[in-house]
Predict the 3D structure of the following.
Amino acid sequence: MKGLIALRTRLYLVRHGETAWNAGGKFQGHSDIPLSQRGREQAKALADRLSKQKIDAFYSSDLSRARETAVILAEPHQGTVYSLPALREINFGRWEGLTFKEIAETYGELSARWWASPLTITIPDGESLQQVVDRCSKAVTELVMRHAGETVLLATHGGVIRVIVGLALGLDLNCFWQLRMDNLSLTVLAYDGPEKAVLELYNDTCHLHEK
């Protein structure tokens, strides 16, 4: 048991800071939307919170809103940020840049089917949630094995974090939208190997409310 605990790997999962599209309720997906000034301030607040924590490695999605978040978080640690395209948000295809209301009005039946069964429905010019599950599952397995016994921070996206948490807990990922995920929230999973995880913290944003 002591040997297992010594090799426990913690993933700090951070959703990127706010963007103008977040504020406007628009789906972003693979669209490379940068952080807003508020998003940068959010990232700095979490960077202050984590500045005394030992973090061994920093990874991010290759989209700029996630990468900039990771760079801000890594700065107090003088850490290098490594990009992982597998950590990209779901590709929303033709839905990117649209609001929930606009998607429902334009893609009525398909939209309803996707919300009910995102694992199996492919968004026009986009991807299904199952494709996100496949790439994220492989990436997490590789990271947990590569960083056994270490603490690793991943700056990524709401959909990706929901998927990683859902996989760790064995949830039906067709219901993944029922997992709330705020901008610049912190979620922590502790792994004793790639297939055994404990959720230690979820969607924590206390650093955004402290004075």
User: Anything to note?
Assistant: The chain has eight helices and six strands. The two ends are 41 Å apart (CA to CA). Residues 100 and 153 are 30 Å apart (CA to CA).
